[in-house]
Recover the amino acids of this structure.
């Protein structure tokens, strides 16, 4: 899922009254995802999620000025520490987007100026909507939808744009709001959960697609065809021999009722495993998890969960891990959990291939959410926990029945030890999730699970099942236990943010080379981080370089869908431009142990025997790398 940068800080004053079209266009292109997010949050929820997404894009795309120059909005200069400042183009397009979003919620007769209907973008045959977040995002969206549009805009300007109240008043007034003070008062009634505004729930640029009502489209098409082909069709039917309709004569029409489909959606047929079954079974996967929670006997809740699984309505928030089918179960599913969690009722089901989590508010079913994650082949550490709930940046897990102890550990501080979590009926107390997408990464929390088979480490990467963490050479990697493994992960833990939302099953860290730096600069470390996915394809590989004494490693190369750094090809080669303390530039390259020689060509020329290369270079030089393995096979540099 794409990360959002921090809100730009426009600084416009009466001394700088204009912004030309070039500035506005540059600001629109650079900050398009943030502007679309702003429009999506301010638009009324009554439009429906799909129409709201398209309208947000349309309003943002129409925000450019029509002439060569445009009056800048009367917005005061930003002086908060850390602000960027100096971008009247962004201030202008933001105001245009905000004004259009506010007007979109008004009846036509109350709009300040007539606007052409939103013609583009248009999508036919598909519904587009953002990925769903957790219960906290759902609750925030419901609270915002109950506010008037100016109050929603005030909340968003405070949280997303980080403006103080004086600045919010001026921006709202410039956007045409009648009562900015009243809008601020209305925004005060919603808890200040501003970090949630950056979540995928409100990202109208990272979308999911679903078909529209296929039955209705088919009925409309049939009605049109019948009017012109009725006579010919009847004649053809009269001429058919026997009583057959062709090769599919016995097949039921789509969405027809049949015993198998009805059995899969019958809560009475849900599989519930005995609490002690895992103790005598040779299996250590989700199939031996017992059903837990105080609502396992709530037939109405289970029926709703199964029905939404098979036929999610238009207003259901659906999220699917990449590569995971989202259709209904093929047969009766297994119940893992049904109970109350915070302000929601949650049901977790398993069908042998997927984990499905259904959540609905305790006060009704409006705003229900359905999440799917692929877990085929999960066993042991990979079947140790499932995300039960995310709220206010915290995560609560349902753990496997063999888990005896659960703790949270900050990967960036290996010496700080692990903090034990409360474990009641397999449910952990809430723990702070890993570092957010925005801002500096100063910590990265991981879940440590201890059972009869030892201790395992996993981390939340935005999926229903946390990703297992290992370290070591591909093919012989081990779980992250012991001081050496924890120390090895510490400088590179924050790079896990690059793996979010990709359906990651496990991440391995391999320290493959140590390189003496030129001019007596000490010894640098090279590591390769590989994320394997549940779907098999799409593995992500990062090469990272760490200078002596550096707190964190730096990602110098990345690739997807490659075998490098994995069990099938346990080799890697990567390079980086490095500046010495004296100001000299060098091309450094390092390969894994089996690399017999390394060569560079292009902007830098050089070669060396063995897996390490250091060649003088110019700042900004670009070079291609080639390595030769001991068996004569050539490999290229990771990129």
């Amino acid at each position: 899922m794409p990360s959002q940068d921090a809100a730009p800080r426009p600084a416009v004053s009466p001394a700088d009254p204009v912004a030309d079209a070039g500035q506005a266009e540059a600001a629109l292109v650079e900050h398009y995802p943030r502007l679309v997010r702003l429009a999506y949050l301010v638009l009324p929820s009554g439009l429906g999620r799909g129409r709201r997404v398209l309208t947000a894009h349309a309003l943002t795309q129409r925000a450019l000025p029509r002439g060569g120059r445009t009056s800048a909005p009367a917005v005061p200069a930003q002086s908060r520490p850390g602000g960027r400042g100096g971008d009247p183009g962004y201030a202008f397009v933001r105001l245009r987007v905000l004004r259009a979003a506010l007007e979109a919620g008004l009846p036509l007769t109350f709009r300040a100026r007539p606007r052409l209907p939103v013609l583009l973008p248009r999508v036919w045959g598909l519904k587009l909507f953002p990925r769903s977040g957790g219960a906290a995002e759902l609750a925030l969206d419901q609270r915002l939808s109950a506010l008037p549009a100016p109050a929603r805009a005030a909340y968003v300007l405070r949280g997303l744009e980080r403006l103080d109240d004086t600045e919010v008043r001026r921006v709202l007034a410039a956007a045409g709001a009648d009562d900015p003070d009243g809008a601020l008062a209305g925004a005060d009634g919603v808890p200040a959960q501003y970090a949630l505004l950056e979540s995928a729930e409100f990202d109208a640029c990272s979308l999911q697609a679903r078909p529209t009502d296929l039955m209705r489209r088919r009925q409309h098409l049939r009605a049109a065809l019948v009017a012109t082909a009725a006579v010919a069709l009847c004649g053809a039917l009269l001429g058919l021999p026997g009583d057959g309709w062709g090769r599919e004569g016995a097949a039921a029409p789509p969405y027809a009722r049949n015993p198998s489909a009805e059995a899969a959606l019958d809560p009475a047929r849900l599989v519930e495993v005995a609490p002690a079954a895992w103790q005598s079974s040779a299996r250590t996967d989700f199939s031996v998890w017992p059903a837990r929670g105080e609502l396992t006997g709530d037939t109405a809740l289970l029926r709703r969960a199964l029905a939404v699984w098979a036929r999610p309505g238009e207003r259901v928030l659906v999220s699917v891990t990449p590569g995971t089918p989202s259709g209904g179960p093929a047969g009766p599913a297994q119940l893992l959990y049904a109970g109350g969690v915070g302000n929601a009722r949650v049901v977790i089901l398993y069908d042998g291939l997927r984990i499905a989590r259904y959540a609905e508010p305790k006060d009704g079913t409006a705003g229900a959410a359905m999440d799917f994650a692929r877990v085929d082949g999960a066993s042991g550490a990979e079947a140790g926990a499932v995300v039960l709930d995310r709220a206010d940046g915290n995560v609560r897990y349902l753990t496997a029945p063999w888990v005896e102890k659960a703790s949270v550990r900050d990967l960036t501080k290996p010496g700080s030890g692990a903090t034990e979590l409360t474990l009641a009926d397999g449910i952990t107390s809430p723990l702070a999730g890993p570092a957010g997408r925005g801002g500096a990464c100063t910590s990265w929390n991981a879940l440590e699970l201890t059972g009869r088979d030892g201790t395992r480490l996993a981390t939340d990467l935005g999926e229903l099942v946390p990703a297992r963490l290992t370290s070591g050479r591909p093919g012989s990697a081990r779980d992250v236990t012991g001081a050496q493994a924890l120390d090895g992960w510490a400088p590179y833990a924050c790079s896990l943010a690059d793996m979010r939302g990709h359906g990651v099953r496990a991440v391995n860290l391999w320290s493959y080379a140590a390189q003496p730096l030129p001019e007596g600069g000490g010894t640098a470390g090279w590591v390769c981080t590989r994320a394997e996915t549940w779907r098999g394809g799409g593995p992500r590989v990062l090469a990272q370089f760490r200078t002596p004494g550096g707190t964190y490693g730096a990602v110098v190369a990345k690739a997807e869908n490659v075998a490098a750094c994995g069990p099938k090809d346990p080799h890697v080669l990567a390079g980086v431009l490095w500046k010495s303390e004296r100001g000299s530039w060098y091309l450094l390259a390092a390969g894994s142990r089996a690399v017999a020689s390394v060569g560079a060509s292009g902007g830098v020329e050089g070669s060396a025997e063995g897996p390490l290369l250091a060649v003088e270079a110019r700042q900004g030089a670009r070079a291609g790398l080639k390595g030769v393995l001991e068996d004569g096979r050539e490999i290229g540099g990771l990129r």
